[in-house]
Write a structure and sequence with these properties.
Blueprint (H helix, E strand, L loop, with lengths): L1 E5 L3 H12 L3 E5 L2 H10 L1 E5 L4 E3 L3 E3 L12 E4 L6 H8 L8 E4 L6 H5 L8 E5 L2 E7 L2 E7 L3 E4 L7 H14 L3 E3 L3 H22 L3 H6 L1 H20 L9 H12 L9 H7 L10 H11 L4 H18 L2
Parallel strand pairs: 1-2, 1-6, 2-5, 3-10, 6-7, 7-8, 11-12
Antiparallel strand pairs: 3-4, 8-11, 9-10
Helix pairs in contact: 6-8, 6-10, 6-12, 8-9, 11-12
């Protein structure tokens, strides 16, 4: 397959490396500051999935360099706040048989991309393995809580095609399944990140430490409880009937395999980068305001992350 990976950060490096090694023609689109090294040294992945390296077919820093190309698959791994502009830029590359995968955190990526790319070409992904950037083009996979799940929120793409795509990723070494209930998985990841990623960034501790400390555990319980109040008010279906059921799964099954992991949002703050808070707790607050639901703990979490982000960007 002819594949374009947009964003060569931690996640994009994993996908570009593994798909390239599986025999696909992979082009990487990344920031100009990083592509020279990637052109020379390729991409490298280490960690729990082993040691891997690959030289990509092509690496560019501007969509204009790809203007005459079409792809079988485009994978977007950029931060959520860049989704709309990226979708607009790559729209001319989307052919009749191209599907665009949104492997990103948070809420609103589908809506942003659909402004420029037909929704029956868009596939959402719930990615819940952890990857840390070691250097430009070098990533370490640290943890995995579950398989990647892919799907079409309105079931505009056939289950057979989704299963074929899942098989492509699985063959490349990335555990992946297809689902007709992708939004339940996406919301599950939003809840997970809204409790762990944001509080992990604020307190600068691992996920396991957040769960072990009674004060932060109580804060996570409150964050999750408020989100379930919102989801129930908006009649958004979930795999769990209530917050208590989710929290049992959260502490018993989700946190243990990721206990040593540190939040990617913390990495963003420490490196002076903008965070994705607006697509996580920030999206919860916005939807809650529209629905008349009180989410005071989520509001405070958003304010604290934005304050840390602001101080970091000023350094």
């Amino acid at each position: 397959m002819k594949i374009l990976v947009v964003g060569l950060g931690a996640l994009g490096t994993v996908y570009s490396c593994f798909l390239s090694l599986a025999g696909h023609e992979v082009t990487g689109l990344g920031r100009s500051a990083s592509i020279d090294k990637i052109k020379t040294n390729g991409v490298k992945v280490s960690g729990i999935w082993g040691e891997h390296s690959a030289v990509l077919m092509s690496v560019v820093s501007d969509v204009s360099e790809l203007v005459h190309n079409h792809y079988d698959m485009i994978i977007i791994t950029v931060k959520t706040f860049a989704t709309e502009i990226i979708a607009q830029q790559i729209a001319p590359l989307v052919g009749e048989k191209t599907n665009v995968f949104l492997f990103q955190n948070g809420y609103g990526n589908l809506e942003a991309a659909a402004k420029f790319i037909p929704e029956d070409r868009l596939i959402l992904g719930r990615v819940i393995f952890g990857a840390e950037t070691l250097a430009q083009g070098e990533t370490k996979v640290t943890v995995i809580a579950d398989d990647v799940i892919i799907g079409s929120p309105k079931n505009l793409i056939s289950p057979e095609l989704l299963e074929d795509y899942a098989a492509v990723f699985l063959k490349a070494g990335i555990p992946t399944k297809a689902s007709r209930e992708i939004m339940k998985y996406v919301w599950g990841k939003i809840i997970y990140n809204s409790a762990l990623n944001t509080l992990g960034a604020i307190f600068e501790v691992s996920y396991g430490q957040l769960a072990a400390e009674p004060v932060t555990r109580d804060l996570m319980n409150r964050v999750v409880g408020e989100i379930f109040d919102l989801l129930q008010t908006r009649n958004i279906p979930m795999f769990w009937p209530d917050a208590e059921t989710y929290l049992t799964n959260f502490y018993d099954k989700l946190i243990p395999p990721t206990a040593a992991h540190h939040a990617s949002m913390l990495q963003d703050i420490q490196n002076g980068r903008r965070t994705e808070i607006d697509a996580l707790n920030g999206a919860v607050v916005k939807l809650a305001q529209e629905s008349g639901v009180a989410v005071p703990v989520n509001e405070v979490v958003v304010a604290m992350v934005k304050a840390k982000e602001s101080f970091s960007l000023r350094r």
